[in-house]
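User: Show me an example of a complex going from sequences to structure tokens.

Assistant: Sure. Here are the input components:
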Amino acid sequence: MSVVDHESALAGPAKGKPNRLTRNLSSKIAALPMILTALVIFVGCTIWTIVYSFTNSRLLPKENFIGFDQYERLWGSSRWITSISNLMWYGVSSLVLTLVIGFTLAALLDRKIRFENTFRSIFPFPFALSFIVTGLVWQWILNPDYGLQGVVRSWGWESFSFDPLYNPDIVIFGILIAGIWQGSGLIMCIMLAGLRGIDEDIWKATRVDGIGTVKTYLVVIIPMMRPVFVTSLVLIAAGIIKLYDLVVAQTSGGPGLSSQVPAMYVYDYMFKAQNLGQGFAASTMMLLSVVIILIPYVYLQFKGSSRG
Amino acid sequence: MTGPRGPKPKRRFSRNNIFIYGTLLMVSMYYLLPLYVMIVTSLKGMPEIRMGNVFSPPVEITFAPAQGSIVTV
């Protein structure tokens, strides 16, 4: 209440009490289309998908509710389990490796080296390429006959074996190589910007105190860069959940079903197997996992802003 | 007092610098390798792509479009 009074006092001689609804009316009207679009398209369609995931829709959505049957079938399918475990492996490794590589490169570039601009343009350039191009090129390089393995064998090391894309046990790490190649440069840029934002006096102070460079990074600099790490984390996590085109370009889910990911499962069931209900159930599970990841993030952000 | 004071500056190729530049160069290889493959392969003709490996430089530079795909998984 006191806030409103204060604002009306600032606005000059107020005519009566300001109405909360009509205050800034023109800007509210201007924002209305955007709000409606967000509500109808994002929230509305999400709810629609969730509702229809409880039906047995095949080619077209039908209101024939069957409870949790689709979800039971989903979690009983070995293909979905493979997809989830693949995404977990890819997600955890990609998260850790991208953060470590990104921060290490940024820290090395921040040591006042020569040719910094050259290195700084080499690392993020893969981010400008699409996942399809990335996937195809790495598919060539990882091909046992034409790529890395073939070259090393032609040098005389006949028993050399490096064919992750053809080995069902480690195929997801073949995809990881390409994923990190594509994504870590951007994280390096963000980290470098964060490092540049650190006051030079901090470095002077730690030098006076006789703390080593590596220890300074670990104990002083990284805790100071918490917002930068949170931003990177969200960017990486969004990329992991969306993982689809890289797999399609590199292995199209093979060998067998060993490199399936959830997004592929959703697409295949919706548009190839014509089983909308199953696809909706799978996408609802994906949404649920995003929400589970998002809640701690929102909490962290909120906590950070309220403390200033 | 005139002239520079303090200890003699470190040598240019200290162990630290070798580590930093070595790491950066190695990592740049990882980032530039696919770019090299892309450029080299784009200049080859289809028979040459099928014969050699993806890293070999093009014997005969061609700009004609190549039909078909290199490898299929």
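The lines above are the inputs; the final block is the predicted structure for all two components together. The first helix of chain A runs from residue 2 to 10.
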